[in-house]
Amino acid sequence: MEGGIATWYAKNTRKDYEEFKRLAAELAQDLPPGSRVLEIAPGPGYLSVELAKRGQFKITGLDISETFVRLASDLARREGVAARFVHGSASDIPFEDGLFDLIVCRAAFKNFSEPLKALNEMHRVLKPRGRALILDLRKDTPWEEIASYISKADVGPLNRWIYKIAFKHLLLKRAYTEEQMTALVRESDFKSGEITKELIGMEVRLVRREPVAEQAA
Length: 217
Hints:
Elements: H1 3-13, H2 17-29, E1 36-40, H3 46-52, E2 58-63, H4 66-79, E3 83-87, E4 100-106, H5 115-125, E5 126-137, H6 143-151, H7 157-174, H8 178-187, E6 194-197, E7 201-207
Parallel strand pairs: 1-2, 1-4, 2-3, 4-5
Antiparallel strand pairs: 5-7, 6-7
Helix pairs in contact: 2-3, 6-7
C-alpha cells in the first residue's frame, strides 16, 4: 500500500488500537531487557510503538511500503520511542544472521509473494532459540464469522462494505488454511511450529532451534 490507500488503512486500523496494546503487553511479558525485535510489515507502526513503550527493547520495523515506513517513523517520533522503521522486503531481509530475539508478523504474511523464502529469511535472522509469531487470517474461516467480525468493527457503514469486499474477493483468496501453513512451515528451515486457531485467524509460533553440534569423527 502506498499514498492515500496506506493513509486510509492507517486511519481505520487505528480504531483497533486496544488490540495492538493488548498484543504488545503480551509480547513484552516474555522479553528480557535489551531484546531485539523485528516486526515484518508493521504498517503504520502501532504494534512496534506500543511494544517500545513497554521495555528497554530494540525495535525495528521492516515494510515494503515507503508510505508506511514514513507514517510509522513519524508516529515513533511523536510518541518519543526508539523504534526505527526501514524499507525492505520480507523475502530479502536486510539484516545479518542471528540478530533478533523475536519476529512478529501480523495480518501480512498472506500477502507475501515468496512465502517460503520469507520464512527462511525469518529463520536466518533469528538468534538460536529466537521466536517468530505470525498472526493472520485463516482461509477456511466460515463467511458468517467474518461477516459478524466486520459488523462489530467501529469503521462506519461504507468502510464495513469495503471490508466485506476486500475479505471476500482478495484477502480470503490469499490466506492459508491450517493445513497449508503446516505444510509450508515443514518445508521451511523451521521444519515445525505450533499453530492455534483464533476467531477468524490463526497464530503460528515458530522457534529457531539450536544448531546440532557436529559429532567428532
